Amino acid sequence: MEKVQEVLPQLFLVDINHFGQPGLGGAYIFQDDDVALFDAGTSLARDRILGALDALGVKRDQVRWIFLTHVHLDHAGGAGALLSELPNATVVVHPRGAKHLVDPTKLVASTKSAVGERFRFYGEALPIPEERLHPAQDGEIFPLGKIQVQAIYSPGHAPHHLCFFLPQRGWLFTGDAVGLYIKGRLLPTTVPPNFDLEASLATLDRLATLRPQKLLFTHFGPGEPVLIEEYRKLLLSWVERVRRHLDKTEEEAVSAIIAEIQAEGFPMGPGVSGDWSMSVRGVLGYLRRREAGG
Asked: Which residues contact 282 (CB under 8 A, 6 or more apart)?
């Protein structure tokens, strides 16, 4: 049986073994008369997710929706690989992300450029037929058995980011909008090329107004709503930390900041160190765009 855990009633978390490590990345399965996935991992997660569906007794034709928070490959790369096995599933994504799922060439190339040798953990992204995509409008409601799912536009981490809110349950699927939540600790996820601090802060304000009862992190697992405000504070301090190194080259800044956070006891190790590096680069890009008036 694949590693699948019921984290809330009818909601199951599948550990996709991201970067070859447990506890770093997942996909959620909501099981009712209709079944939905929230995020789909990388293409390498396909068999784990299908195995979890089988273990839960879910028939492949019961899966109605695959809700993607955004098109970064650790969230969306597995969707194309899953669709051939899920004949009734429709992929829900932000309109700006849809074209990258129909033709993932640029998305894959961008990911390879950003993550370097770690790309082996991402796999390839299979194209998704346009007729099986639903570009979601902000606030749009999707039926899921007796439950409703609302798409919430939530830029900042990426301009094509959605969160998904289940108002009847008070559950908020956060994608990367509220950072990473690894082993009980919040970490920034401010990756290139489009991190935007002001947009992130506005998103956190909006998510707080939903008054969620539970946050569901793709990375990784359930968290309490107080984490929205905690992430706001973390983002502000993180951007200021990177700002102090603006006079350095990118490589020098990355090295210096990773040394700082390592000395302060932040999580490091396989699968996490590379995220720190990308998060530094994303803030550097944001700050330099601001300096240039962009």
From this structure: 190, 191, 192, 193, 195
